[in-house]
Amino acid sequence: MRVPMIPLDRARPGDRLVVRGVSPQHGPALAAEGIAVGVEVEVESAVPFGGPLVVRVGRARLALAREAAQAVEVEAASEAAR
To answer: Which of 9, 15, 33, 66 is 20 to 30 Å from the Cα of 25, by its Cα?
Structure first.
């Protein structure tokens, strides 16, 4: 049974995830930073009270505004491999 996708902003630090969808509004900007469908990301930290989410994409670390993180649908990397 597959785990449902969630918005990236609901992920927790330490989660390894695979991007499954990106909203058209944020797609081009996120793709320029390396976040696109099929890419694995790891959440490093989440600043409380609506602050940015810090994610690792390959060797890069990115701070994403919560609005941008909400536009990214992800699933657990372990589930994506099945």
So the answer is: 15
